[in-house]
């Protein structure tokens, strides 16, 4: 089934202007489609700009029935940045990744996972993902960091070069490796790498590759075998936590622990 899509995007003042032809994403499990007119931008520019996407703080006007007054809630609208929006093959490829993210996110129901509210058109050629707005921001903002972009937590085997292809998303449908001509699927080992990076960030207060500001430079450093956390940055981390976290971010995916091993380690630390 083809999802309804808008043919216009809005200028900051609310008037319509022509945009790139919106692309249909054939979602495996149809998410809630939020009408574009129900989403109101909070400002002229996006509020967060990572290496991969732009996040807009918006207001979603909801009306449960015709006789009830609409209520307004604050939401985050995540629009994947596409550097070559007229590249049909690239747009289609990224659309498939959005399709998978929406499918996986829709099936999650946990208190520690941000709720997926649905999709909305009008923020680019592909659907944007809508979730509740988190007032405290992301983890790196909590540490007063200006470096953003999920690419920092990606396992080296998940990286595809060149960066100019336009999108690098962890835990998404797959990434085409130019030299292989195939698609690399996300793995549990890649998730463990991301988890290890987050653990070290929590313990040290430093982002992976904190000295690099651009996603393409982070990609290049990762492929080049440069460690995400220099020894001096994690010198204050407790030895046991440090050793285990470094195992999680090993360049050799086979050396990383599995989920049960992590649970056992955490149980030992909390006892």
TrEMBL record:
Sequence segments annotated as region (Disordered): 1-23
GO molecular function term, any single one: ATP binding
SUPFAM superfamilies hit by this protein: Protein kinase-like (PK-like) (SSF56112)
UniProt keyword annotations, A-Z: Kinase, Transferase
Pfam families: PK_Tyr_Ser-Thr
Domain spans labelled Protein kinase: 1-266
InterPro entries membership: Kinase-like_dom_sf, Prot_kinase_dom, Ser-Thr/Tyr_kinase_cat_dom, Ser/Thr_Kinases-Pseudokinases
Protein name listed in UniProt: Kinase-like protein
